């Protein structure tokens, strides 16, 4: 078996008396697509911060290509939560992608080599056509493709995405998820993809890490998205049904119908 790109060993994180998760063991292999789901406040972003070396664990350890996480690691391409960029931002798409090389081993190379890398990264997300456009003038979905190109330009072993689909329409969601899938298939890049909505990633996910109420479950979609597992995780009856290939989850405590259920799906929850 190949060495894991990312490994959690009996990892735990608590803030004071509040336990987000503990006893988490997980190996993410090259090319694997792992979706991280859970209610608001369940600890998804804290998990991302721990992988980035920005948050110390309370127990256990994380290994990234065999080493402890550290800030600015070459091994991670990070896509932060989607947010609109100011239309007046003067940078071009290619400048944004080039920032992904700053501080990396590729960043100091010849200018021609750098330009070729940036071009290849933009092509890999089908964004070459807007390389010279100001980033602020692109649509939300186009901006997100540029962010993914920035994350991939230094050729990391792990693509770490924190809710990259937020505020994107269904078509853009499909484009982004398909591009991420293509990358991991072609280059073996492992993917950890935080999302509150399983349906957009359903065709691609190998495993799910679902966080809830200090508990978690790791497994295939079929293993995690069952009424039994979800009811155990939340400690109340939760119903999971499949309709037309989509997963609907009903009964998560204090679900905020308005906040998280775009596309008609019910799979998130907001805890007050
Ligand atoms: N540095 C910190 N100190 C104390 N509590 C923290 C700290 N960071 C996060 N928390 C708490 O830990 C919990 C989990 O936060 P986190 O942002 O990881 O959740 P999340 O699953 O990403 O939520 P959301 O879906 O709303 O983004 C929250 O209750 C948060 O207030």
TrEMBL record:
Domain ABC transporter, residue spans: 6-238
Keyword Cytoplasm: no
PROSITE patterns according to UniProt: ABC_TRANSPORTER_1, ABC_TRANSPORTER_2
Keyword Transport: yes
An example molecular function term from Gene Ontology annotations: ATP binding
Family annotation (Gene3D superfamilies): P-loop containing nucleotide triphosphate hydrolases (3.40.50.300)
Family to which this protein belongs: Belongs to the ABC transporter superfamily.
Protein name: ABC transporter ATP-binding protein
């Amino acid at each position: 078996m190949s060495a894991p790109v990312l490994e959690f060993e009996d990892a735990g994180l608590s803030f004071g008396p509040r336990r987000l998760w503990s006893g988490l063991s997980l190996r993410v292999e090259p090319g694997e697509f792992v979706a991280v789901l859970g209610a608001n406040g369940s600890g998804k972003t804290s998990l991302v911060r721990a992988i980035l070396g920005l948050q110390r664990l309370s127990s256990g350890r994380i290994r990234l290509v065999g080493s402890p996480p550290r800030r600015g690691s070459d091994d991670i391409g990070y896509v932060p939560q989607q947010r609109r960029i100011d239309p007046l931002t003067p940078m071009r798409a290619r400048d944004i992608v080039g920032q992904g090389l700053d501080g990396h081993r590729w960043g100091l190379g010849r200018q021609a080599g750098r330009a070729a890398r940036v071009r290849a990264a933009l092509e890999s997300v089908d964004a070459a056509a807007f390389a010279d456009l100001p980033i602020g003038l692109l649509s939300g979905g186009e901006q997100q493709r540029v962010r993914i190109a920035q994350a991939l330009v230094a050729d990391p072993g792990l693509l770490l995405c924190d809710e990259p689909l937020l505020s994107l329409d269904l078509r853009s969601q499909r484009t982004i998820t398909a591009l991420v899938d293509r990358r991991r298939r072609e280059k073996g890049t492992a993917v950890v993809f935080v999302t509150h909505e399983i349906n957009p990633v359903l065709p691609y996910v190998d495993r799910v890490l679902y966080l809830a109420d200090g508990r978690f479950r790791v497994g295939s979609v079929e293993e995690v998205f069952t009424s039994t597992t979800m009811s155990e995780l939340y400690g109340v009856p939760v119903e999971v049904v499949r309709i037309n290939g989509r997963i609907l989850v009903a009964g998560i405590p204090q679900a905020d119908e308005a906040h998280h259920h775009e596309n008609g799906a019910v799979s998130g929850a907001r805890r007050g």
